[in-house]
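Just scan my protein:

——
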Amino acid sequence: MNDKLIIGYDAKRIVRNGTGLGSYGRTLVNDIAADDSIQLRLYAPDEGRDDLRNQIVNRQNISFCYPSHSVLPFHKAAWRTKGIVQDLCHDGVQLFHGLSGELPIGIRKSGIKSVVTIHDLIFLRHPEFYNWVDTKIYAWKFRQTIREADHIIAVSECTKRDIIELGQVNESRISVIYQSCAPRFNVSSSQGEEKKSSRYILSVGSIEARKNILLAVKALPYLPEDISLVIVGRHTKYTDQVTDYAKANHLDHRVRILHGVSDEELPALYAGAEAFVYPSVYEGFGIPIIEAISCGLPVVACTGSCLEEAGGPDSLYVTPDDAEGMANAIRQSLHGAEGRDQRILHSREYIRRFEGRDVASQVIDLYHSLIYSL
């Protein structure tokens, strides 16, 4: 007799997204899988990318599940939106966890308990950063999901406040459970190789207007000439705006943009930097901040959303339009700056609350409370 809990997961982002939602899902699933009393079934519309799928640990209590007859993109989308419920019932799934803000239609009616992780509501809070049609689709999915969900995980207090205000959701239905970063980021900045030949500050994340990396570029003239900015992220139209500004202001020799950086290469880039900058206008959490602190870097970020939650009281924060303030904070974060080492030490203590096993245990406790509730 199998007495294991059977938990289903929306694994689309796990097998398709290299960062962000994909990283969240892979890290959480790997940490939960250490509990042998849980059988994890990962439901994805297809196998996705081999390199991402293979980041899931090879354990007997983990299995991937794909639709048997959905080969066309439309059929795959329909399966994930609704058809998956039939498979969940057939497989004896007791609880389904939507890892990326979505749940299938009909999950509540099926009797299967459900949890959804909502990372942010930026499309409602700052729709100016999105295509108009996309905001309408995202808003519809959000409202459909909160109707289906038995419980909601918010990845920050900021996101919880947004869910309550913008979704009119009762606070009792929401738990704040922070996300953790992958263990590969537990390296020392002394292990970085690039700093031997160059000094740089680092930023990681999609290069888009909301991420506001242009603020860090504008800060460069106020910093020592030998300090450059390395930006890691997906190319967008905003990338061209950043490079055009750098060229027009004779800063292009100090701005290096990297696309397609692998998971294996990224920790070394963190470790080789002198500081990490994350000038985003609005975030749901900001996992790159945790990654940077794990690698021993001081962090400079922006006020106005949840970044103070991620970075803690010993990181430095400026308003999203203050280039001189950004430069001053970066200057305080460079090698030799007074108080730098102490701030790094205190920040590393602060982020212990985001360690994987602790996060996973909170999620598992939530599963139990829902499955065994009267």
Remarks:
- The two ends are 24 Å apart (CA to CA).
